[in-house]
Specification:
This protein is α/β, with parallel strands linked by helices. The protein contains 16 helices and 12 strands. Helices cover about 50% and strands about 15% of the residues.
């Protein structure tokens, strides 16, 4: 019998994916109709796994041979040349996957000559495709999307996925250019945009006259219902003869802000604990598992924190000891404990939000990774 395990630190396949049944059905229906979708939600909520490993696989299974899935990750991109470089590499990789048969590969290669394709033989005998584009990044971007549109017109099934799209916001004129080529060349091609920084996505998609205003359907990945995760976790604890009851499961989920990856890490840590008898996991055991998890990850988290400035770390310490969330960053108590000015607090909060270290929901600021908060509470007390 295959033992079900908690998965983290990697994309999750469908058998290990928890919940989001409605979201996957809506995505599949929209893709089948060639529609545009913005899928948004906090990092580590499973957006990429849902689209790449679940929805895209189901879509590919319904298509004829030669279906073209273009997946581009824009996380951290800051220049137009960097954006085009990622797009070019993704196009070349997708092209090879879609047209893997040698004869078909050569035939289709002839159809993209204006992208100046170059084919080289790798040491392992595999062919490697790169695009020899020109010097103008804007024209190169347009050319790639033109070729995608041309492939679709030739009958090639096409799905476009643009991940961590909010980082495009940092590049001058990139949003308008991409919106234009999507409309001009991929008007009836299913396109899914993924984003994790809601404050940036709002400026791109909801502000009047923004380049992507009124673009596509908007779909949010929010918190997994408590009972859904309880069932999921108990399936993976069963081999250790452990079980979470409703109270201990809710406590575990709330302890790490209901962030799916953190929940899986914490639930997995329950398995290694010593138990007098194998029975329902108590709240005390959840606390013990958290202490074990934080101790085990302390070196990695300290290295992570070392990259922040003194002001940024002090902000995070103050936020952690405020309970992990705060609504009044400019309140007297928060200012006094942080040692920062109002202007300094706002500057730090803006930077940390831009880097997805913290999130803002309404007026509430909270940690993106609750394990960072628990580490601070343990080692900065």
């Amino acid at each position: 019998m295959t033992v079900k395990a908690f998965r983290f630190d990697a994309l999750v396949d469908e058998p290990d994916f928890c919940n989001y049944h409605d979201e996957r059905q809506r995505l599949l229906q929209s893709i089948a109709k060639g529609r545009k979708v913005l899928l948004f939600g906090r990092r580590n909520f499973g957006k990429t796994s849902l689209v790449r490993n679940v929805v895209a696989n189901k879509w590919m299974a319904t298509q004829k041979k030669g279906a073209f899935l273009l997946y581009v990750d824009f996380y951290g991109v800051r220049t137009m040349s960097g954006l085009v470089s990622r797009l070019s590499a993704a196009f070349a990789d997708s092209f090879q996957r879609a047209f893997s048969a040698k004869s078909l590969f050569q035939t289709m290669l002839d159809s993209i000559k204006r992208l100046r394709p170059r084919v080289e033989m790798e040491p392992n005998g595999q062919l490697s495709l790169t695009l020899g584009l020109g010097e103008s990044a804007g024209r190169n971007l347009t050319s790639i999307f033109q070729e995608l549109g041309a492939l679709h017109k030739r009958g090639v099934p096409l799905l476009v996925v643009l991940d961590e799209f909010q980082d495009v916001h940092y590049i001058d004129e990139a949003e308008g250019l991409i919106r234009g080529v999507l409309e001009s060349h991929l008007g009836n091609v299913a396109t899914v945009i993924l984003g994790s920084k809601k404050h940036l996505l709002s400026q791109m998609f909801t502000v009047p006259h923004a380049p992507f205003a009124n673009w596509g359907e908007h779909l949010e990945m929010s918190y997994i219902p408590y009972e859904e995760y309880t069932s999921y976790a108990n399936e993976r604890l069963a081999h250790a003869n452990l079980r979470l009851d409703d109270a201990s499961s809710r406590y575990l989920q709330d302890l790490v802000g209901r962030v799916p990856e953190a929940m899986n890490r914490l639930a997995d840590s329950l398995i290694a604990l010593d138990y007098a008898t194998k029975e329902n996991v108590t709240i005390q055991k959840v606390d013990e598992a958290l202490r074990t998890l934080i101790s085990r990850r302390s070196s990695a988290i300290e290295e992570y924190l070392s990259h922040f400035t003194g002001a940024e770390e002090q902000f995070l310490i103050t936020l952690a000891f405020a309970g992990g969330s705060a609504t009044q960053l400019t309140g007297k108590d928060f200012i006094a404990k942080s040692g920062l000015s109002i202007a300094g607090l706002r500057k730090v909060a803006h930077k940390l939000e831009d880097h997805a270290v913290i999130y803002r929901e309404g007026k509430m600021y909270t940690f993106a990774d609750p394990l960072i908060m628990h580490h601070i509470l343990k080692y900065r007390a």
